[in-house]
Write a structure and sequence with these properties.
The protein is mainly beta. The chain contains one helix and eight strands; from the N terminus they run αββββββββ. InterPro entries: PEBP-like_sf.
Length: 135
């Protein structure tokens, strides 16, 4: 019984280490990330078009997340999108995206961050957009 428990703990630790959550620490190679807001992207599940540049050969897909610079704990989602070679993630392609809504009297600034993931599931590059306020 104890061996089974140790095996399960080991598997859980390995799974946690193989996350495709984009982070600057996972790979400092810099990609460019750009996007533009439209009213349809706010308070909705329709993500903006995201353009990723300078991604390395061998990128299988992109793991992308929307972040609130002014409220880092907020969960705004994102998604994983296959690399077609263009670096363009079409509008609506981030399936777990939750568009931000106006919050209080102070403007919030949002940015997308992305990790390039290879065929083995390893993060091979990272980038993030410039923070932008809601329109």
């Amino acid at each position: 019984m104890r061996q089974h428990l140790l095996l399960l703990i080991g598997i859980a630790a390995l799974t946690a280490c193989s996350s495709t959550e984009p982070t600057e620490k996972s790979n400092p190679n810099t990609m460019t990330v750009d996007f533009a807001w439209k009213p349809s992207h706010l308070c909705s599940g329709i993500s903006p078009k995201v353009e990723i540049g300078n991604f390395p050969a061998g990128t299988s897909y992109f793991a992308v997340r929307l972040r609130d610079r002014d409220n880092p704990s907020s969960a705004l989602g994102g998604g994983e999108v296959a690399n077609t070679g263009s670096g363009v993630l079409p509008e609506g392609s981030l399936k777990s995206y939750t568009g931000p809504c106006t919050q209080g009297s102070e403007p919030h600034y949002y940015y997308f961050e992305a990790a390039a993931i290879d065929h083995d599931g390893k993060s091979i590059a990272y980038g993030k957009s410039q923070p932008q306020p809601l329109p």
